[in-house]
Amino acid sequence: MSERILGVEGGGTKTAWVLVERDADSLRIIDQGNLPPSNFRLVSPERLRAIFEQMPPETDRLGMFLAGCATEEDRNLLRTLCGQVWPNARIIAGSDRDSGLAAALGRGDGIAVNAGTGASVTGRRGDRVEKAGGWGHILGDAGGGYFISLQALRFILREYDLHRGEAQFTATILRALGLNSRDELVRWAQTADKMDVAGLAPVVFECAINGDESVMKIVEEGAGVLSEYTAAVATRLGLLAPKVILLGGLFQRDGVYVHAFRRKIKKNLSDARVSMSEQSLELGAAWLASQMEERAPVTIPATEAETANLARASTEQRNPRSETLEKLSAPELVELFVQEESFVQEALRKETASLGRAIEMVTKSLRQGGRLFYVGAGTSGRLGVLDASEIPPTFGARPDKVQGIIAGGVTALSRSVEGAEDERGSGALAIEERGVGNADIVCGITASGRAPFVLGALGEAKKRGARTILLTCNPERDRFEGSDLEIDLPTGPELLTGSTRLKAGTATKVALNVISTGAMVALGKVRGNLMIDLTISNTKLRDRAVRLVAVLAKCDSNEAAQRLELHGWNVRAALEE
Questions:
Q1: Can you tell me whether residue 40 is helix, strand or coil?
Q2: Phi and psi for 48 in degrees, rounded to 5?
Q3: ∠ CA(116), CA(121), CA(123), 5° rounding?
Q4: For the chain, what is the total number of helices (H) and then of strands (E)?
Q5: Strands 243-247 and 273-276
Q6: What three-state secondary structure class fits 157?
Q7: How many Å is the Cα radius of gyration of the chain?
């Protein structure tokens, strides 16, 4: 029985789709078309759905591959969105890298070089895939239409500032945009989005083809970056004479770019076999959909077992002592909060042995040249980052010795990043990106004991030989095999149900204080109860340093200040005089 398969490839310039019918092993094109851009990072879900609704509604399988769809969380969200439009279809979703690799190589080995609005290089040898470029238009996309157009705009202003030159190319760009002056061009660029800028690429290429040598240098630069990425991917894969397939609008539309790439690749990878792709990216998307064995999930909620585990967590239970919280007066509310803090002290007391073991583990790792990583999501992540940030000024340690990793990155420090903690793969990737090894120690912090980001990070750290600690406030959780030490602080239900920034947060902060301070004490960073490696960065700390040296060196404050001045306000050096 034949199947209708819809393949979609979306980027910053357009969304291309193709509807095919599969009979046996062949795919026959029924219909195809182009719609507005659909970069997953730059286009709203509402706009994406509106675009999707313009495609054929009746399909058995769907392959949806969009630029900017980079993580498993992205793919889950995209599948969910597609499931709303095609509820009966088997759906596979991913990045335009995936559809490009399929269109270029099918199941074979080689390298796909995709240059459109953005640009990326993806290679495969057997089951191994290597990538270069494709980091987005802010930090990457070198060699794509946005990159080339932006370089051209900068070139116009640079040449004008230096030589009052390039009037002809400037006039061409202004005419293409309907502008009258360089000042208007600058104002346009300040509000233009990625697609607006990339849309100038055909104008740039036209000038290069017409013999503008300065503009041709910009085109050559873009091709040169892509050839360097291609050579790097080939080296990592051990491909000596790789098949290199060119895809994307820049190569398809402008032969000058193909020729420029061929010239550059001969210098970087002389035996490469370069050719244009015979298949479109949307057809590659349809082919990937045809290869699906089973229907991919179209929703992203946790499994029933995971949801049940979370519901059982003590931090998620209602606190009977605060069931009338909204009816309490201010003094009554304060009294209740103070009373609840006794649970924090009791929870810490029950885990004193485990906390002592954590100090020993961290001390051993740091003493042997390793690093301590805190990993958490939400409140737990912020507490880890906070404790890590206090170590350098308090104990004079290098900033890399104790590091905080939070799901969602720096954005999550000040506001919630939806779904960040649910991405197990992102936790593993964070550990990989930090280069965690067998000398390091990773402390995962999760009040419920189940945050996938944290567990993924601990699992990856364990695989890399690092020591691991799991810190939770939920003794009732399921056991986790990826930790060398588990610390469960039984703080009980929160006054505000589920708000783990309260008792759980307080207990977690104290536990981190104990672990990091205990390790620094063991490493000789204090004398008595005084900090001798503190960083002197303000008047208050200068005064503290003078008093500290005066006490430990048994001298008056004037002599203490002189010692510190002599040793550049290094307390340890002043004491060792």
A1: coil
A2: -60, -45
A3: 140
A4: 22, 17
A5: parallel
A6: helix
A7: 30
Q: Concatenate the DSSP letters of all residues of 267-280 into one string.
A: HH-TT-EEEE-SS-
- The residue-averaged pLDDT of 519-544 equals 85
Percentage of residues in the chain having pLDDT higher than 90: 51
Give the H or E element holding residue 15: strand 15-23
Rounded CA separation 206/577 (Å): 72
Question: Choosing from 390, 432, 476, 559, which is the catalytic residue?
Answer: 390
Mean of per-residue pLDDT scores for the chain: 87
Longest dimension (CA), the chain: 95
What are the distances in angstroms from CA 518 to CA 349, 446, 531?
Answer: 16, 21, 13
d(CA 575, CA 563): 8
Q: Output the six-digit token pair for 190.
A: 């300040």
Distance CA 451, CA 468 (A): 15
pLDDT at 152: 93
Q: What is the pLDDT of residues 268-291, one digit of tens each?
A: 899 999 999 988 899 999 999 998
Average pLDDT value for residue range 561-570:
87
Strands ordered across the beta sheet of 90-95: 26-35, 15-23, 3-10, 61-66, 90-95
Tell me what pLDDT residue 317 has.
81
Average pLDDT over residues 4-8: 95
d(CA 573, CA 182): 59
Distances (CA, A) of 138 to 118, 193, 230: 11, 11, 21
Residue 345 pLDDT greater than 80, yes or no: yes
Does residue 214 contact residue 166 with C-beta atoms inside 8 Å?
yes
Q: Is the pLDDT of residue 140 over 80?
A: no
Map out the domains of the chain with their CATH numbers.
Answer: 325-522 (3.40.50.10490), 531-575 (no CATH)
DSSP string, 291-359: T-SSPPP---PPPHHHHHHHHHSGGGS--GGGTTGGG--HHHHHHHHHHHHHHHHHHHHHTHHHHHHHH
Helix (H, G, I), strand (E, B) or coil at 214: helix
Enter the tokens of residue 203. 């104008």
CB atoms within 10 A of CB 211: 8
**How are strands ordered across the β-sheet holding 273-276?**
128-133, 119-125, 110-115, 243-247, 273-276
Q: Is 421 a catalytic residue?
A: yes
Catalytic residue among 73, 228, 421, 494: 421
- The contacts of residue 206 (CB under 8 Å, 6+ apart) are 172
By C-alpha distance, which of 391, 394, 401 is closest to 367?
Answer: 401
Is 390 labeled as catalytic in the residue annotation? yes
Residue 131, strand partner residues: 122
